[in-house]
Amino acid sequence: MAPAASKLRAGAGVGALPQRALAQYLRLLRLYPVLTKAATSGILSALGNFLAQLIEKKREKENCSQKLDVSGPLRYAIYGFFFTGPLSHFFYLFMEHWIPSEVPWAGVKRLLLDRLLFAPAFLLLFFLIMNFLEDSEKGGSMEFTKQKFHTPDCIAEPCTNSRPEQCSEEFQVDIAVIQPLSAMLTASVTTQLHLQHHGLSSLRCANIQHFLIGRDTAAVAVQIRRSFWPALRMNWQVWTPAQFVNINYVPLQFRVLFANLVSLFWYIYLASLGK
């Protein structure tokens, strides 16, 4: 009888795990709403990108040596933690206060606000932040390579000449491609001073400044033109019914979590689109 009783207690303990996890989540949600939603957004966003890479790897069976990109889930985790979770939290609060449920056609008005204003802006922010993170990662690797070989004017390989300006053109930085607009330059300098005032490193400020003044502006513009409208159309198709349910039937404290679960599939689509 004792072994049977212990098995029953063990089974009951395992069955109670979801309840205890839910109770702990609700407790954290009550005590630290923004931080909890940011953490769940970061974790689920990274998981979505990881699953997207697995699907892509299975699709390309002939390239068995292809390795998973570790930096991909990291970028999605950063975006989910610092942008998706907090912005969604405050957007749903704003929507709840600005369009109360007592207002006529409140559900339709909330849905239109989300679909026509928040969705395009948030999607554009996604592409900009992802391009910035990828650009920063490449820029950091390039700086490390240049310092390693002590060739400040060469990009990828050590220069065999005594004068750096005589390096091969394929390893030279093409300064002519940097064509900053005056307004963007002013904004970048202002942003740099603001970030330095708040304690960010000079290297990170330089990365932000280079991104803002247009080091890769042409590439970013091409990427957005190629991907933004298809992604926005798919967003309207996938997220419109999901957000209708989320905004009108899901309790306020669970709306970010509900959107995160839908995002598992949405980020798989965005990741495959980026590739």
Label the overall shape: globular
Q: Strand content of the residues, in percent?
A: under 5%
**Total strand count, please?**
0
Count of helical stretches: 8
Q: What is the overall pLDDT average? A: 73
Spell out the blueprint of helices and strands:
Blueprint: H1 2-31, H2 33-59, H3 71-98, H4 106-149, H5 182-197, H6 202-212, H7 217-249, H8 255-274
Brief characterization of the structure:
The chain is mainly α. Helices cover 76% and strands 0% of the residues. Mean pLDDT is 73; it is low at 144-215.
Account of the protein in words:
The chain is mainly alpha-helical. The chain has a domain at 27-150 and 221-274. Helix content is 76%, strand content 0%. It contains eight helices and no strands. Helix 5 packs antiparallel against helix 6 (202-212). It is globular. The protein starts with a helix and ends with a helix. The model is unreliable at 144-215 (pLDDT under 50).
Keywords:
275 residues; mainly alpha; 8 helices
